[in-house]
Specification:
The protein is mainly α and 163 residues long. The chain has two domains: 101 residues; 31 residues. The chain is built from five helices and no strands. Helix 1 runs antiparallel to helix 4 and helix 2 packs parallel to helix 4.
Length: 163
């Protein structure tokens, strides 16, 4: 894939992610009634542009093309678009990352890598501390300890005043 195609795919991928978030939100909140045709049309437009940029890619051109029957229920249309968007986003991200040129950095991957690194560091530190503490030998000699000190004598009680 050349840099021109990569550059053209980047904003389409962002638009596709945005569509995916909107579809997911509408499914979770149940506010998809009346939006099925609009969302399907948006996906179709994005898919067409992406397929034009990747004409030799059978997976994009044929497999991820929506095949919605006329008069289908809104929830079916939304579910199909949601599935197709998820597949296309994942495919394009992997395709763009594998190119070696201008790689799109995914902030979530970086955060996840940071969490994994943190867990590995904590695990190694715990193991090292356990090994170090297991080899500590504390020798306390109880035979030659000095006697405990004796407490001082109690003071005399005060004398009442004479009147």
């Amino acid at each position: 894939m050349d840099d021109t195609t990569r550059t053209a795919l980047t904003p389409l991928l962002m638009a596709l992610k945005s569509l995916g978030k909107a579809v997911e939100k509408s499914v979770l909140t149940g506010t998809y009634e009346g939006t099925g045709d609009m969302i399907a049309r948006q996906y179709h437009n994005l898919h067409t542009k992406i397929a034009q940029l990747l004409p030799d890619d059978y997976y994009v051109a044929e497999v991820l093309k929506l095949d919605q029957p006329a008069g289908g229920h809104e929830s079916q249309k939304i579910a199909q678009v949601n599935l197709a968007v998820g597949q296309l986003v994942g495919y394009l991200e992997n395709l763009l990352k594998g190119g070696g040129g201008a790689v799109i950095s995914d902030v979530e991957d970086i955060k996840e890598m940071g969490r994994e690194l943190q867990q590995q560091i904590l695990s190694v530190t715990r193991k090292a501390l356990k090994r170090a503490l297991a080899n500590i030998d504390i020798d306390v000699d109880v035979k030659n300890t000095p006697d405990a000190p004796t407490p001082p004598d109690a003071p005399d009680a005060p004398k009442p005043p004479v009147v």
